[in-house]
Design a protein that fits this description.
The chain is of the alpha+beta class. It has one domain: Thiol Ester Dehydrase, Chain A (Roll), CATH 3.10.129. Helices cover 27% and strands 43% of the residues. It has three helices and six strands. The protein has a six-stranded antiparallel beta sheet with strand order 1-2-4-5-6-3. Strand 4 and strand 5 form a beta hairpin. 33% of the residues are buried.
Length: 145
């Protein structure tokens, strides 16, 4: 039996892969919503709430990180192959405002058999408020057939 390549597996199991991340417990508990998933990419959104602010009245960095990290997780797992984060670097460029809808866009820059690299941008409207560089470890396990 021929083993599927990343692109073939993504297209064949895209709905199942989307469903896995659509139901991710931590993201769901925060109100993070997966909008789309592509080959090595994803988009996620979060409508911020009063309890997500810091002592300055702006969105807490941990909330912004969680949204970016979720988009990263969906993108690196978009081929149905189990991936885990190895490292991230986040740059906070502007404060997120309470009540805003934040949008994270993750894009794969390069991958090989074991590792993959991603750039994630977080927007509030049209304003870039944070960016993340992330590296994933690609395990031998697949969570789709």
């Amino acid at each position: 039996m021929k083993q599927l390549g990343d692109s073939e597996r993504h297209h064949q199991y895209k709905e199942e892969i989307f469903s896995v991340f659509e139901k991710e417990p931590y993201a769901s508990s925060m109100g993070i919503r997966l909008v789309e998933i592509g080959e090595g990419s994803s988009v996620a959104e979060l409508k911020t709430a009063d309890h997500m602010v810091n002592s300055h009245g702006t969105i807490h960095g941990a909330v912004i990180f969680a949204l970016a990290d979720f988009a990263f997780a969906a993108a690196c797992n978009s081929y149905g192959r189990t991936c885990v984060g190895l490292s991230t670097t986040v740059n906070f460029m502007s404060a997120g405002q309470k009540g805003a809808v934040l949008r994270a866009e993750a894009v794969e820059e390069k991958k090989n058999y074991r590792t993959a690299w991603y750039n994630i941008k977080v927007f509030s409207g049209d304003e870039l408020i944070a960016s993340m560089e992330a590296m994933a470890y690609r395990k031998d396990h697949y969570f789709v057939p």
